[in-house]
From TrEMBL:
Protein's name in the database: LruC domain-containing protein
Record-linked InterPro entries: DUF4842, LruC_dom
NCBIfam families recorded: LruC_dom
Keywords: Signal
Cleaved signal peptide residues: 1-24
Pfam family, one: DUF4842
Keyword Signal: yes
Limits of the DUF4842 domain: 545-745
């Protein structure tokens, strides 16, 4: 409650005295709490406590590679600490084998995920995301990924389609002595080993239903394939295609198949020496040998079980141009590319509906853009490029599959990447930098997956708990015949060590206490009579994660009261003898107004430890007594000095006994140290100095006189503006029992709140 006196030319002294006492009379005298002037608050549930924070039991099992010899440091944040420099620390401690880090974690109720960071004894950092909507959170950093060698039998051995499925038939026409201009039509034709046919020998236009089997060498120019035409390159055979009519393998059921090697013969090969080669729907390339082309555009089916080299150099322009101009393009919804061998290209692009399966090595020298593509990366495979962009992807990775992105990986929207372990083998994505969109919808990483970001991690993504995000490779991936020597484990600092105890735990969530001073009578509910910010809680913890000492770092935000207010905090789970000493800054004189009387250790109370913060809010703010501060629109903001309260304990205490939920903050609005009038948050117990009933600091309609907000940018209402006017969704939050509009405090009416 406040009383505002406007200056007039003449005042009678008796009138002044009446006004003064009217403004300062609200001292608790034992009367029952009255219904405050809180607006339309009917319907607030009896059990609603106005809390804006949640408590969950968090257990973190570290990935102990040192058999319990050293401690791992565990930190918990409200955002991904790799992505956000402003992520708030919610908890911190140590763990090791058979001694997990366990804490009662307190965090804003609106959080959907918390992020747990493990720092191992080699100073290597890893992060996991955990569901924050549950009451019990179990976070396991898991076992080490594969470090032993994989045999080829661990790898996918190919596909149901192979060039060997098309052997030389028994009936064929031998082309050894063919004359120039020979026409192929409706039959099987054979070029034996040692036979060389130049471009003039065969007509470029085949009439259809023809199959040419090549064990020797043939050169084709301006080649055209009709329906059901096939060219089969047998072991040791070689085909050189200088040009193709229209640049397409494009008729129904046309096929190019290249055999691999045998015990006595080398692999077959085919080379497209010029122009762009396009594989249209209905056409198929199967390569078990060597295929070389300048560019390749896939609309049909390409299966590479051998070596495929796409030789056109260059960056391909910007990412969007790759969908048309990349040297290797999956250009349509009918595109199917299965790579079970080694494929290299300067650039790569794929479009909506395309299907890419990689079982061995896909190596893109420059940029790669996959848009709306389904991708499967098989155990032991490598998917590598210089720069990557993905949009609308559906990616499944298996076993020891590896993705290596030498520079940036950009995920635009709706990308889903799921890892599947195969026995102990876990897929890995390693990139230099991550660039995500402005929301979690840009990328979803799920399943079991190791995600390594060597440099910057910017933007958002969503990670399931089975995903581990690291700064460096913590787990090695063993080399295979496909994966470019695998991934080598980073040694970190090289020498393991324990953290130095006690460790400092600087919890950085900014809490705002907004209080009305009208208890037990009416209030205007502008929630600005005393607005106090807690910048951070700093704890010193021992190796058992117990608290040796703590600091409360506060600042005054607003004083909408003219009366003299004090403030303190009761530790509801700590007895006074557990406190060795309390140290305060000079501004917070607790003896003012006779509100507090503390013993030699700076503590008041017999059952619970009460820590007086200050006896005069105006003095603590650094303003004259009675001055309303930082509540009027347009007024220059007054910045208060820092208020520091340091508490040393006689013996370490459990964190759950001194976390923010265990700190019972209150203001004093009258009385004295023997019979005090206190205003607490709803549901909290008063100190022993309060003699009367408080009704749990809730009114007849279940309204409160104060709340705590875990948000540094909370804008309290202007002088005389009810909280329900300033925050339109506040009432629904209350009436729903806190289940709806949980972020109400982020949505003010701008002209009804104080801004600095």
């Amino acid at each position: 409650m406040k009383c505002i006196l406007k200056k007039r030319a003449i005042f009678f002294i008796p009138v002044l005295m009446i006004l003064f006492f009217a403004c300062t009379k609200d001292v608790y005298e034992g009367e029952d709490p009255k219904k405050p002037d809180s607006g339309n608050t009917s319907g607030i549930p009896d059990d609603f406590d106005f809390t804006t924070v949640k408590k969950a039991k968090l257990t973190v099992d570290v990935n102990d590679q040192f058999n319990g010899k050293y401690f791992y440091v565990v930190e918990v944040y409200d955002a991904n600490p790799f992505a956000s420099k402003s992520a708030n620390l919610l908890g911190k401690g140590v763990g090791k084998k058979d001694a997990p880090f366990v804490v009662d974690l307190i965090y804003p109720l609106i959080l959907k995920n918390v992020y747990v960071k493990q720092t191992d004894p080699l100073q290597r950092e890893s992060v996991k995301a955990c569901d924050a909507t549950v009451d019990v959170i179990n976070c396991t950093f898991g076992s080490v990924a594969a470090t032993k060698s994989l045999s080829d039998t661990n790898l996918r051995s190919g596909t149901v389609l192979s060039a060997s499925d098309y052997p030389l038939p028994a009936d064929y026409t031998d082309l050894s002595d063919v004359s120039d201009g020979y026409q192929l039509q409706n039959g099987n034709y054979y070029i034996p080993e040692g036979v060389l046919l130049n471009a003039s020998k065969l007509k470029s236009y085949w009439a259809g239903n023809s199959a040419l089997y090549v064990a020797g060498t043939v050169t084709l120019t301006n080649w055209y394939m009709a329906n059901n035409d096939k060219i089969i390159v047998l072991p040791g055979g070689k085909v050189i295609i200088n040009s193709m009519s229209g640049g397409t393998i494009g008729q129904s059921n046309t096929m190019v198949a290249v055999h691999g090697s045998t015990a006595s013969k080398s692999e077959g090969s085919i080379e497209f020496t010029s122009g762009s080669i396009q594989v249209d729907p209905g056409a198929t390339i199967i390569n078990d040998g060597t295929l070389i082309a300048k560019t390749l555009k896939i609309n049909g089916k390409v299966i590479n079980n051998g070596t495929m080299e796409i030789t056109k150099n260059g960056s391909g322009g910007n990412f969007d141009q790759l969908l048309r101009n990349a040297s290797l393009v999956m250009a349509g919804s009918t595109s199917y590319f299965e790579n079970n061998g080694h494929c290299s290209s300067a650039t790569f692009g794929s479009v909506q509906g395309a299907i890419l399966i990689n079982s061995c090595s896909l190596d893109i020298e420059n940029k790669m853009y996959c848009d709306g593509t389904d991708i499967e990366l098989v155990d032991g495979s490598l998917f590598k490029c210089d720069e990557f962009k993905g949009n609308g992807l559906n990616v499944n990775m298996f076993g020891s599959a590896v993705v290596k992105i030498e520079k940036s990986a950009t995920f635009v929207w709706n990308n889903k990447i799921i890892g599947h372990n195969v026995d102990q083998f876990i897929p890995t994505i390693m990139m230099k930098s991550y660039i995500g969109g402005s929301g979690e919808g840009s990328a979803f990483f799920g399943g079991i997956l190791n995600l390594i970001c060597l440099s910057d991690f910017s933007g958002d993504c969503k990670m399931e708990q089975g995903v581990t995000l690291s700064r460096v490779p913590v787990n090695a991936v063993a080399p295979t015949t496909c994966n470019d020597d695998g991934i080598e484990e980073n040694p970190g600092s090289g020498t393991p060590s324990d953290p130095k105890f006690p460790i400092e735990v600087a919890l950085s969530t900014y809490y705002i206490f907004a209080m009305e001073d009208g208890w037990p009578g009416n209030s205007d509910y502008d929630m600005n009579d005393l607005v106090l910010g807690v910048k951070n809680f700093i704890y010193s913890q021992d190796k058992d994660n117990n608290v040796v000492s703590m600091e409360i770092n506060l600042d005054m935000r607003a004083l909408g009261a003219t009366k003299k207010l004090g403030a303190g905090v009761q530790l509801d789970k700590v007895i006074p003898s557990s406190i060795k000493s309390v140290t305060r800054t000079a501004l917070n004189d607790i003896s003012v107004n006779n509100y507090f009387v503390s013993s030699g250790n700076g503590v008041e109370g017999s059952s619970y430890a009460v820590i007086p913060l200050f006896g005069n809010a105006h003095a603590a703010f650094g303003v004259p007594n009675g001055q309303i501060t930082n509540t009027y629109k347009g007024a220059d903001a007054v910045v208060s000095g820092n208020i520091l309260c340091k508490i040393d304990f006689t013996a370490p205490v459990a964190m759950e006994n001194v976390n923010v939920n265990a700190l019972n903050f209150f203001i004093v609005n009258g009385g004295d140290s023997n019979n005090r009038s206190e205003v607490h948050l709803a549901g909290r117990i008063p100190t022993e100095k309060v003699k009367g009933d408080t009704n749990g600091y809730k009114s007849d309609d279940n309204m409160m006189w104060g709340f705590m907000i875990p948000y540094d940018d909370f804008k309290y209402p202007l002088e005389g503006i009810n909280i329900m006017e300033a925050y339109p969704t506040f009432a629904n939050w209350c009436k729903s029992g806190g289940t709806q509009d949980t972020d109400w405090y982020k949505h003010p009416v701008d002209d009804k709140v104080f801004t600095e």
